[in-house]
Specification:
Elements lengths: L2 E4 L3 E4 L6 H8 L18 E6 L4 E3 H10 L5 E2 L9 E5 L25 E3 L2
Parallel strand pairs: 1-6
Antiparallel strand pairs: 1-2, 3-5, 3-6, 4-7
Protein backbone atom coordinates (compact mmCIF):
# COMPACT_ATOMS: atom_id res chain seq x y z
CA UNK A 1 0.00 0.00 0.00
CA UNK A 2 1.60 3.32 -1.07
CA UNK A 3 2.15 6.04 1.50
CA UNK A 4 1.18 9.65 0.91
CA UNK A 5 2.85 12.35 2.97
CA UNK A 6 1.25 15.79 2.82
CA UNK A 7 3.06 18.72 4.43
CA UNK A 8 1.08 19.90 7.43
CA UNK A 9 -1.26 16.88 7.40
CA UNK A 10 0.83 13.76 8.00
CA UNK A 11 1.47 10.41 6.32
CA UNK A 12 -1.32 8.09 5.18
CA UNK A 13 -1.66 4.64 3.64
CA UNK A 14 -3.52 4.90 0.32
CA UNK A 15 -4.90 2.21 -1.95
CA UNK A 16 -2.69 1.29 -4.90
CA UNK A 17 -3.89 3.06 -8.08
CA UNK A 18 -6.10 5.61 -6.31
CA UNK A 19 -6.17 9.06 -7.87
CA UNK A 20 -4.02 11.51 -5.93
CA UNK A 21 -6.80 14.12 -5.84
CA UNK A 22 -9.06 11.59 -4.07
CA UNK A 23 -6.28 10.43 -1.74
CA UNK A 24 -5.69 14.04 -0.68
CA UNK A 25 -9.36 14.52 0.17
CA UNK A 26 -10.45 11.14 1.44
CA UNK A 27 -7.31 9.78 3.10
CA UNK A 28 -5.39 12.90 4.14
CA UNK A 29 -8.36 15.19 4.85
CA UNK A 30 -7.03 18.00 2.65
CA UNK A 31 -9.54 20.55 1.33
CA UNK A 32 -8.03 20.11 -2.16
CA UNK A 33 -9.61 22.09 -4.98
CA UNK A 34 -10.84 20.31 -8.13
CA UNK A 35 -13.22 22.83 -9.70
CA UNK A 36 -13.66 20.87 -12.94
CA UNK A 37 -14.40 17.61 -11.11
CA UNK A 38 -11.00 16.10 -11.86
CA UNK A 39 -11.20 16.26 -15.65
CA UNK A 40 -7.94 18.14 -16.38
CA UNK A 41 -9.66 21.33 -17.51
CA UNK A 42 -8.99 23.87 -14.76
CA UNK A 43 -5.61 23.27 -12.98
CA UNK A 44 -7.10 24.00 -9.53
CA UNK A 45 -5.90 20.61 -8.22
CA UNK A 46 -2.22 21.63 -8.31
CA UNK A 47 0.34 20.08 -5.97
CA UNK A 48 4.09 20.45 -5.54
CA UNK A 49 6.16 17.30 -5.09
CA UNK A 50 8.74 17.14 -2.33
CA UNK A 51 9.63 13.51 -3.18
CA UNK A 52 8.28 10.59 -5.16
CA UNK A 53 7.11 12.51 -8.22
CA UNK A 54 5.98 10.02 -10.88
CA UNK A 55 8.05 9.99 -14.06
CA UNK A 56 4.91 9.33 -16.12
CA UNK A 57 2.12 11.83 -16.72
CA UNK A 58 -0.94 11.93 -18.90
CA UNK A 59 -0.74 13.75 -22.21
CA UNK A 60 -3.73 15.81 -21.01
CA UNK A 61 -1.78 16.96 -17.93
CA UNK A 62 1.31 17.77 -19.99
CA UNK A 63 -0.77 19.79 -22.46
CA UNK A 64 -2.74 21.64 -19.77
CA UNK A 65 0.36 22.62 -17.80
CA UNK A 66 2.03 23.88 -21.00
CA UNK A 67 -1.13 25.76 -22.04
CA UNK A 68 -1.19 27.59 -18.69
CA UNK A 69 2.59 28.06 -18.54
CA UNK A 70 2.80 26.18 -15.23
CA UNK A 71 6.06 24.59 -14.12
CA UNK A 72 7.22 22.96 -10.88
CA UNK A 73 3.78 21.54 -10.12
CA UNK A 74 1.54 18.68 -11.12
CA UNK A 75 -2.22 18.12 -11.41
CA UNK A 76 -3.41 15.73 -8.70
CA UNK A 77 -6.41 14.67 -10.80
CA UNK A 78 -4.04 13.09 -13.35
CA UNK A 79 -1.85 11.07 -10.96
CA UNK A 80 -2.34 7.57 -9.58
CA UNK A 81 -0.88 6.42 -6.27
CA UNK A 82 1.63 3.81 -7.40
CA UNK A 83 4.38 4.47 -4.89
CA UNK A 84 5.34 6.65 -1.94
CA UNK A 85 4.68 10.34 -2.56
CA UNK A 86 5.38 13.49 -0.54
CA UNK A 87 3.50 16.61 -1.66
CA UNK A 88 2.54 20.12 -0.67
CA UNK A 89 -1.15 20.89 -1.19
CA UNK A 90 -0.91 24.33 -2.78
CA UNK A 91 -4.43 24.67 -4.15
CA UNK A 92 -6.90 24.42 -1.28
CA UNK A 93 -10.47 25.54 -0.65
CA UNK A 94 -9.38 27.45 2.46
CA UNK A 95 -8.62 31.00 1.41
CA UNK A 96 -9.73 30.47 -2.20
CA UNK A 97 -13.00 32.39 -1.92
CA UNK A 98 -14.83 29.50 -3.63
CA UNK A 99 -18.06 28.12 -2.23
CA UNK A 100 -16.86 24.51 -2.52
CA UNK A 101 -13.93 22.44 -3.77
CA UNK A 102 -15.77 21.23 -6.88
CA UNK A 103 -17.74 18.14 -7.79
CA UNK A 104 -16.26 14.86 -6.55
CA UNK A 105 -13.86 13.33 -9.08
CA UNK A 106 -14.64 9.84 -10.34
CA UNK A 107 -12.32 6.97 -9.36
CA UNK A 108 -10.92 6.75 -12.92
CA UNK A 109 -8.70 9.38 -14.55
CA UNK A 110 -10.44 11.54 -17.15
CA UNK A 111 -9.97 12.14 -19.98
CA UNK A 112 -8.91 8.59 -20.87
CA UNK A 113 -5.20 8.64 -20.00
CA UNK A 114 -2.48 8.47 -22.62
CA UNK A 115 0.72 8.04 -20.60
CA UNK A 116 3.92 9.88 -21.56
CA UNK A 117 7.27 10.37 -19.85
CA UNK A 118 7.49 13.66 -17.96
CA UNK A 119 10.02 15.84 -19.73
Amino acid sequence: MPQLTVDGFGTFDVAQGKRLVLALEEDAGVDQLHACGGNCRCTTCRVEFVAGEPVMMTQAEKDKLAERGLTGMRLSCQIQMNGAMHVRAISRLEGSGRADAGSTPEPEIHPEPVWVVKA
